[in-house]
Amino acid sequence: MTIDIIRSALIEIDIQNDFCPGGALAVDKGDEVIGPINALAAEFAGHGGRVIATADWHPAFHVSFASSHGGRKAGDVLEPADKGGAGQVLWPDHCVQGSAGADFHKALDLKSVNLIIRKGFRKNLDSYSAFFENDRKTPTGLEGYLKFLGIETVVLGGLATDYCVLYSALDAAAIGLRTIVLTDAVRGVGFPEGSVERAIKSMKDAGVILESSVEVL
Ligand code: VGL
Ligand code: ZN
To answer: What is the reported pTM?
Structure first.
């Protein structure tokens, strides 16, 4: 056990059908995160820890969808002159509010989840992080929730290593939380090439602890 569970929260990032095999933005072996996440969630719930699940939750015609920018294809990146701002990677339509693809994977155990944070719900602003949207200043409210409860350590798993897990982990570390990312409970998109390796390096550089779920318990 490396954590004081009473002052810790497990954050389950975007374990939704669209990021799992068969989904619109499927992450290779994305569903493999569910086993270790469920096991850890039960431990947290049974010992006074908090469990939070996030959901990517986009309106139709969201700025991050290639289909919203006629002629663009998934993988293109928006320029400063484009509506939606610089650096926005374009994706296939995914996690549309109320769609089956936006539902949590059916194997994810929601019994122990205390709070669900939906993000990316503004048409012209994406949100990879569970803490701040992609303008890097609009809060989701999660920081306030955790700090009000006196939580000092967050343990992150889910999808995808190189996008929503990465941004959430960097933000968590930046706001002063001890941040652990579960090596056996994350999977990456892997686009552009090398993105998972770069993500792991930047998390380590930011002081994020990478540890397997069995080491945490
Ligand atoms: C994500 C790309 C687009 C993620 C969300 O959950 O990592 N990636 N939207
Ligand atoms: Zn998204």
So the answer is: 0.96
